[in-house]
Amino acid sequence: MSGNQTRTIYVEAPGLLTTVQDLGRDGFGTMGVSPCGAADPLALRLGNLLVANPQNAAALEMTLLGGAFSFPEGASVALTGSDFGATLDGGPVEMWTPFEIGRGQTLRTGPTRTGARCYVCVSGGISVPAFLGSASTHTLIGLGGFEGRALRKGDVLRMGTAARSSPKKMMRTDAVEQLSGRSVLRFTSGPQAHWFPEESQRAFREAAYRVGEQSNRAGLRLEGPAPPQFPGKEMITEGVSLGAIQCPAGGSPIVLFVDQQTTGGYPKIANVVSADIHRLGQLRPRDEVRFEEMTLEAARSLLIEQERAIASGRFFEARGAE
After folding, report:
1. Domain that holds residue 83
2. N- to C-terminal Cα distance for the chain?
3. pLDDT tens across 23-38, in order?
4. Quick one: 216 and 137 in the same domain?
5. How many Cα atoms within 13 Å fall on the side-chain side of residue 63?
6. What tens digit of pLDDT does each residue of 198-238 get?
7. What CATH number is attached to the domain comprising 265?
8. Are residues 290 and 195 part of one domain?
9. I want to staple 190 with a disulfide (CB 3.0 to 4.6 A). Which of 11, 237, 270, 314 is the partner?
10. Of 134, 168, 202, which marks where a domain is finished?
């Protein structure tokens, strides 16, 4: 297949919520623009590496229910994240392993079998105009991605220039298992943790929460005990970070996510560590989660180890290896 040939993806069925996402647009919080980007950035990065793309290449993010996409010129593809029961012209395809789609073939995906989101990473990435340096879709303001919105039936997407070399690696089975667990989220103490009595903080650490039906890419609403605060506390609205767990007065916690507002006036009891952000992206409504506290130093070590594993290729093995 010529790398210079214009290659396209035709959307036969868009699924529940399918958008174009890369790793987001950091640095524009002061303008009120949230980073957006892939809800499971680790799945996106690894999928891009499987098809010889830069880690930040744009891909399709499907949520809970996948769609159907035909490839008039063919493509090299890898599916990562959650298993949506994908088939190619009716035959099953493997997750976390690059495969070839021939001219005119159709990739179909159904409802999720595991987590919340599946990524369709194609060699060359998805080619869309950049908004503030990123291809990610910001649906709340209607900018970025493909026309600033979720995909619709009949949309035609262009792919970028494919790598000359064919993908020759796949994810290790033990690495997939390591990344798939999502029942415990690790956190560091939040900037207003001292606003909560010790018994409230202990109850938060020991409680089991359920992801609410109203959860989305802006935030995960947790159903469970609301940690009581010291009375009489009021705060001025301030900037908020990805993964911050804020506690509205008398309400259950909310985990701020990739499409979050950039400021908030609720106290934050904790913050999910960077190494576990991908786990947030795979939580579905009614999933149960617990929280485990760690120090800033331990959280930093986790992230460093994760980055080293990606950089060294430790997550991968040669195709066909035993």
Report:
1. 7-168
2. 29
3. 999 888 888 888 899 9
4. no
5. 18
6. 999 999 999 999 999 999 999 999 999 999 998 878 888 99
7. 2.40.100.10
8. yes
9. 270
10. 168
